[in-house]
Amino acid sequence: MFALFKWKALFLSWDVFILGFAITILVSLISLIVTLSISLIVGIIRCSNLKRSKRFANWYITFFQNTPLVVQIIFLYNVLPHLGIVFSPFICGCIGLSLYTGAFGATVIEAAILAVPRGQFEAAYSQGMSYLQAMYHIILPQAAKIALPPMTNQTVNLIKNSSVLAMIAGGDLMYRADSWAGENLFYGPSFIITGLLYLSLCLPLSKFAQNLEKKVKTK
Amino acid sequence: MDNMIEMKNVSMSFGALEVLKDISLSIKRASKTVIIGPSGSGKSTLLRCINLFERPQKGKIIIDNEEITHLRHRDLCRIRQSIGMVFQAFNLYAHKTVLENLCMAPVLLKKEKYKDVKERALMHLDQVGLSDKIDSYPSKLSGGQQQRVAIARALNMEPKILLFDEPTSALDPEMISEVLNIMTKVAQEDITMIFVTHEMGFASNIADRVLFLNEGIIAEDGTPDEVFNNPKNERTKQFFSKILKHT
Predict the structure, then answer these.
(1) Per-residue pLDDT at A5
(2) Out of A45-54, A143-152, A167-176, which region has the weakest mean confidence (pLDDT)?
(3) Residue A37: left if φ>0, alpha if ψ -120 to 50, beta else—which one?
(4) Could you list the residue range(s) of the whole structural domain that residue A13 is in?
(5) Which label site among A16, A129, B17, B216 has the fewest CB atoms less than 10 Å from its CB?
(6) How many alpha carbons lie under 13 Å from residue A149 in its C-beta half-sphere?
(7) Do B81 and A123 touch (CB under 8 A)?
C-alpha cells in the first residue's frame, strides 16, 4: 500500500480525483438546496392543519426514511427508463439525494417549529398577522436557530451519501476513485485520498454543528 | 350605538365541557371592565372569544358594530389589528429587540412609516418606564419589564380594544405592583379595556364595571362597589370570603 510508485501514479492522475471531488461538491450543493426547500415545505405542512397535504407528507417521510438510498437511486436510474423517463446519472443522484435527505430534514424542521413556544403564534395572531406572516416573521426565524445544528448534521450525511452515485456511474469522487483503482489495483492510495477528501468537507461542517449546538444550549 | 363589544347568546364548549353558557354582554366604548371569578369559570375563554382566539359554537360577537363570528380569515386579521392583547406569559417576540417588538406589526400590517411608528414606540416605552431598554432582547429583561414592554407593544398598534389575560399571574410578587402601576396609568387612555385578573385592589381602583363569572355564567354584574361590597349571588359571597380571609 505504501509503495512509492503507487503514490506517484496517483499524483500523476490527480486530475481524476479533483474532477470527482468537484462533481461530489456540485451534486452535494445542488441536492442541499433542493433538500432545504423540501424540508421547509414538508416540515411546515406537517405542522399545519391541511389534512390531505399532511397525509401526503407523512407518506413521503415514511417511505423515503425507511428504504435504502441505494435502492431509490437505482430505481430512478434503472426502473424509470422502462416507463420512458430517462435522467442522466448526475440528475438521478441529485433527485435521489434530495428526496432522501429531505425526508429527514422535514422532521428536523417540524421539530424545530414545534419547539417554538405556542405563545409566539398567539402574540402574532393577536396583532393581526395571518398564518403565513406569523410563520415567516416570527416562528421560522426562531425555528431556524434550533434547526441549524441538526440540519448541518444532515448536510454531512448528504455529502457522505453522495458516494452512492458510484453505483450508477455518477462521475463523483467515489466513482472515479473506484474505477481508477480498478484499472491499476492501487486501492490503498486511492481510497486513503478519497477518504481524506470527504473528511476535508465533512469535518469542518461537523465541528461547525457542534459549536452551534453549544451556542444554542448556553442561550 | 355606543357599544364597542357585544356578545349575543354566546355558548362555547370544549368537548363535553360547556365553558360559556348563553352569555350576552354589551361593553361600552372606552369603558374599563374587570372580569373576576374562580379558575375554570370561563373568564379567559370569554376574553379569548372577543378576538376569536376561541370560536364559540353558538352566538354572535360584534365588535364596533361589525359582526366578526362569520368573517373570513383575512377580515379577521384586519379586526384583530384593532384588538390588542396582553398575555399571562408576555409572549414577546424572542428574536427581536424591544423596539422591534413594538414597531414590527404596525409597519408590516398597518403599512405605516417606520419613522412615525418608531416615534410612537419611544413615547409608549417612556410611558411604561423602559426607554433605556429599547435595544435589549426580551430574555435580558425581568418578568415585570417584559410585561410592561408587552403592554407598550399592544398600545403601539393604536387599538380600539385592549384585552388583558391575567397579566400579573406569572409574575414574582415584587414585580406585580410595577405592572399594576403601569396598567392603572394605561387605563386612563380612551381605549375600551377588559381585564381578567385576580387583583381586587386594582379592579376597584380602575374598573367602572365588574363581572363575576361562575361556571360559564355571569353571576354578578355591577360597579366595583356593588360587586365587592354588596354581592347578591351566593357564590360571589363565598368567593370573596375565601380570598379575603388571608389578606
Answers:
(1) 85
(2) A167-176
(3) alpha
(4) 4-218
(5) B17
(6) 11
(7) no
